[in-house]
Amino acid sequence: QREIPATKLKQLRLKMDQKLLQHPEPEEGEIFWTAARVRDTFVSFFESQCAHTHWPSSPVVPHNDPTLLFANAGMNQFKPIFLGQVDPSNPMSKLTRAANTQKCIRAGGKHNDLEDVGKDVYHHTFFEMLGNWSFGDYFKREAITWAWALLTKVYKLPEERLYITYFEGNDQVPCDTEALEIWKEFVPEARILPFDAKDNFWEMGEVGPCGPCSEIHFDRIGGRDASALVNMDDPDVLEIWNLVFMQFNRKPDGSLEKLPAQSVDTGMGFERLTSVLQDKRSNYDTDIFAPIFREIEKHAGVRGYEGRVGEEDKDQIDMAYRVLSDHIRTLTFAIADGAVPSNDGRGYVLRRILRRAVRYAQDVLKMPKRSFSKLAHVVVAHMHSTFPEIKKKEKYIVEILQDEEATFERTLKRGLDHFSKSSDKLLSEGEKIVPGELVFRLYESMGFPVDLTELMAEEKGMSVDLDGYEKCMQEHVEISKKKKTKNEF
Questions:
Q1: Which of 105, 67, 87, 152 is closest to 353 using CA atoms?
Q2: The pTM is what?
């Protein structure tokens, strides 16, 4: 394990200070920290200042990892390195340092944000994860020093609005005093906060590499002591960067042993960072989403986006804008990387996402038929310079989306009418639970995914009988099996 001496690090910090970007005052109405500049600055900082290799994002569809529906973190493609399973003939085996922006989808499976998208201003199914990695090369001191330099010297975030967390220790692993002492060189101790394993100890799985982590949180408000709000799900005090220090290997018996080559895995939410640098209270208010909103507004028969949530968004127009802008990004990248909507696995996750978006497009935003799929052109236009694969597949992506949209449109109105009449009748009778039989009928006859029916029920102050639905589904499966057996004979 190589350690850079403190004197060398001091020289390195001075060197970086002299090479920092000069930030001219932007013209009125101009955004200096555009999304593209935020992304490019991260990668170029680690390439030019910290001798990292820019390793491109893996596909969002992990064809070689059966444990994942979609890539959901920057480190997914590097798992073979961390587990010591990388093929020596693979160029990845030569990596000691890497940095990139990774395409990620969190929908379906263990990590699933689909049901929350649109309801608030920070959930996404598709997002980018900015990350830098050390594979048995540098460790805590370098990772912390470079993270602090990038945030405060390059991005020029106010130091007094940054809060740090570290692992407080437990009966298996001692407190991460090493990280604490390094952070104290940069941050007053009152803003360096201990947390337990739930927040500050990262594990790849039940066995394998793991270790303490140190998170960097930012207070959007400023001018106050926000330490009590860290890790409290306050949208104005948000985690922006997580530095994971892979020190241990979790063995099958649950015990830990020190890794012979300690590594670093960091991840910073690109959309969150961009919102902070553009001084926006919401990821959806940044220039990442603005072009998609403008295109939606061109086709919508309702007002433009105003950023409302909850009770202030009674007509659900703003929720619909967020749903469409998120879902078209997810579908564009997933289809470009080899997935297609279908009735099982990741394909069914994509079908659910598309049908959720089409329902909002036509029922809430009053958009013409087949207009949702056209939003893919906007995603391609604004993101192909970073991810050229979506430009190569643009025509194919739109064709797949149009076919899926057309299929669902044939039953959409009938399903919406059926649900509306049935739910109104139930409410008039004082019933607030949608029967499983109705949920199943909407799914089987009209192609409504269960979570879409749940959402429509929630909008009317109702819930659904999922147990009843599962019972209907099981009966349907059994009948289908009997029919198949009978036909075979």
A1: 105
A2: 0.89
